[in-house]
Amino acid sequence: LAVSADIEGIFSAAISGDRRMLARAISMIENRVQGTLGALAALDPDRKRYAGSPRVVGITGPPGAGKSTFVNLLVTEARERGERVVVLAVDPSSPFTGGAILADRIRMEQHALDEGVFIRSLSSRGHLGGLSRAVGQVVDLIDAAGWDLIIVETVGVGQSELAVCEIADTAVVILTPESGDAVQAMKAGLLEIADVFVVNKSDRAGADVLLRELELAVELDESATWNAPVVKASAITGYGVGDVVTEILRHGDWCEGEGASEWSDRQGRGRVRTFLDLIGEDARFAAFVALNSDKAALKQALESGESNPYRVAAEYEA
Amino acid sequence: LAVSADIEGIFSAAISGDRRMLARAISMIENRVQGTLGALAALDPDRKRYAGSPRVVGITGPPGAGKSTFVNLLVTEARERGERVVVLAVDPSSPFTGGAILADRIRMEQHALDEGVFIRSLSSRGHLGGLSRAVGQVVDLIDAAGWDLIIVETVGVGQSELAVCEIADTAVVILTPESGDAVQAMKAGLLEIADVFVVNKSDRAGADVLLRELELAVELDESATWNAPVVKASAITGYGVGDVVTEILRHGDWCEGEGASEWSDRQGRGRVRTFLDLIGEDARFAAFVALNSDKAALKQALESGESNPYRVAAEYEA
């Protein structure tokens, strides 16, 4: 009970603007400290984002596509407009890509001393999974704390980037001529999720082919009410980067105007998904606790190979 | 009831050696057809793998590391020994890597007409996740069908390759000098999981540095009873490829001999994890059904943003 009162204190200080407590509350979510869900449940349901203010921008793409450059630009631009910005860097801890994120964080140093910017990495610990769950919870907390813009950057490795795009109000997918063809992006479902496509390193061979493939794919998707723009850019020379920011802001406006009902449907589906994830993970955790207490016999049957997991699951659920 | 009898018929034909029915049963698992868990629960718990015969080899590594070449070699070698082989290619459908797997399948064509080889891709559908669950179930089915060797190949993108390595009896991690340093592999937990490391494209710059880093890391891990060998190879020239196969076979022998109790502990932990995953996913699915029937009011509260997922979860579970 003392612990739980403490958590509520930390969360309420975080929401009131205490950066140190915000960092601590995020760590508690990340580490699944007991009681954090209760603290999240107590968040004001009438806060801005629920009431119709889109302000989560997701940035994804393969390693080396130039994501951090665009994140930096977005931060600078938002600061010029006087907005307070959070950057969440989602690191799925892939054995083969993990290095990129750390390097990106170092490049973000220009904003590190700015009180109006809060930068934070979120990584998945071990094999528990649930990274996108943690991201969703952290976004809800930051939203309640009243920050104006939340940028979620994720390195494109598997399912996690899709999940993070779904949390975002505006999903930006950055591709390069080297990163493989547009067909792959479509196959993986990015086409349905991306609100803005960026073809970075647009001076390289293959950029125009990629551009046309993406434009054609967007055009062919007749069900869409928002036609995702495809923007050519070169983060290094600066070519087109202003256009990227413009398109992101234009999509934000669309969410609040013409696309409001579609945007709010998307948010609603996201909340349903978060709820289902919570139920699944709670049940898994309860079973874990049971195996180590009153259901020790089932654990023994599993470990020895006396029975199989499917049979034990049927028994447990009966 | 008629459906369920049908499923049992398909599974029992699959186990008795009917390839067409095996393909169909795998599709049913992949598509989560109702009744497949019951059919899996009915599998003989005394089958070879549970009784101590290791024969699942997992192959992972970043795209372009040369995985399919080694899979091909393993298949050829096993066929020469008269073993019947299944290759499962796990495709997590990453937007940025999906293409590699298809190309690999084409290269496998030399085994396509061999009755002693069964090749199958498993991909994740949409955002449901649960790919490693499907792989585990398919491995259990194939094991019950009496195949001698099961090779699970996965492209290294995030958490899924770790999960697949855990299903394997012998986990082979293929790296190249280009694929980033060994430190990343350690950070991601591959070091604890890999049974054989391969440094492919060993004629390229950086190969010896990578080799030494991996060897040092293996040496420093004093808790390990099996010291993962680090093998230099070049799949293109053929250099060292025989050594890779030798080390894989040597690890299989170790699992049956000196390392038998450690191997069986690992299998036991895998069964516990599969059980927990089943419980979690069943609860998630039950909640999904409830939202669309008697708990429609909760769904409405989520979709409208009247309440938040944490609060609704607490209500649902109460």
Structure description:
The structure is a homodimer of 318-residue chains. Chain A has 318 residues and is of the alpha/beta class. Helix content of chain A is 53%, strand content 13%. The first copy, chain A, has helices at residues 2-15, 19-30, 36-41, 67-80, 98-107, 131-144, 160-167, 182-187, 190-193, 207-220, 241-256, 260-291, 296-304, 309-317, and strands spanning 56-61, 85-91, 117-123, 149-155, 170-175, 196-199, 230-232. A seven-stranded parallel β-sheet of chain A has the order 3-2-4-1-5-6-7, sandwiched between helices. The radius of gyration of chain A is 21 Å and the shape is globular. Chains A and B meet through α3, α7, α8, α12 and α13 of A and α3, α7, α8, α12 and α13 of B.
Which stretches of chain A of 5+ consecutive residues score pLDDT under 50?
94-103
Q: Show the largest interface.
A: A-B, 82 and 80 residues
Distance between the termini of chain A: 33 Å
Mean pLDDT reading of chain A: 81
Oligomer: homodimer
Number of helices of chain A: 14
Relative helix content of chain A: 40-55%
Secondary-structure map with pairings?
Two copies of one chain form a homodimer.
Chain A: H1 2-15, H2 19-30, H3 36-41, E1 56-61, H4 67-80, E2 85-91, H5 98-107, E3 117-123, H6 131-144, E4 149-155, H7 160-167, E5 170-175, H8 182-187, H9 190-193, E6 196-199, H10 207-220, E7 230-232, H11 241-256, H12 260-291, H13 296-304, H14 309-317
Parallel strand pairs in A: 1-4, 1-5, 2-3, 2-4, 5-6, 6-7
